Amino acid sequence: MPQNITIIQGHPDPGGGRLCHALADAYAEGAARAGHAVRSIDVAQLDFPLLRSRQDFETGEPPPSIREAQDLIRQADHLLICYPLWHGTMPALLKGFIEQVFRPGFALEYAEGKWPVKLLAGRSARIVVTMGMPVLAYRWFFLAHSLKSFERNVLRFSGISPVRESLFGMVDAAGDAKRQKWFARMHKLGVRGR
Ligand SMILES: Cc1cc2nc3c(=O)[nH]c(=O)nc-3n(C[C@H](O)[C@H](O)[C@H](O)COP(=O)(O)O)c2cc1C
Known about the structure:
The chain has helices at 19-33, 54-59, 64-74, 92-101, 135-141, 145-155, 176-192, and strands spanning 4-9, 37-42, 78-84, 108-109, 117-118, 124-130, 163-168. The chain is an alpha/beta fold. The chain has one domain: Flavodoxin domain (Rossmann fold), CATH 3.40.50. The strands form 2 sheets. A 5-stranded parallel sheet has the order 2-1-3-6-7, sandwiched between helices. α1 (19-33) packs parallel to α7. Bound molecules: flavin mononucleotide. Flavin mononucleotide binds at residues 11, 18-20, 84-88, 130-133, 171-172.
């Protein structure tokens, strides 16, 4: 069934042209070919400040770029979120974006003495992470802690489920044949809309 897919490109390089962009492009191409509606948010192109207070988080007015991103996420059945692993976690710009976007009233509804209502239920997601180390090292030595925290504390906590993962390791050393295989894999996932 055709889906509304929103791609969140979390690579901080505004010049584009990185592996994260190519993986997202391959996915978008497959998705569009299969009849899914694809929209994109390029975090590196957005103008937004860092969130600095609880008061702003709870009652502040998000800047227009964040409001537009929230609309694109709300309209989506499925999210594709791409980022490179930087110092063991997502780049600071993407973290700043997440803090701005996943506010009360958009991601969760808090009520006194009750478990928060998950406002983004009904949506699924795939997280795509590229990294210099082997994927096995990230999973087994570092326990993929930053990825698990993003999945559980942000996405699942606001109702997004299932959340799937595609991890690409040793990317800086990968030759063209390997990269083409990765693009084919992302294209296939795009066709399936998952
Ligand atoms: C500032 C910075 C920090 C990085 N930290 C890590 C890290 O902690 N672990 C790792 O495996 N790779 C690390 N890398 C390598 C990147 O993950 C890798 O270059 C990137 O995923 C390549 O994808 P791209 O072409 O989309 O940028 C780091 C790279 C940079 C620039």
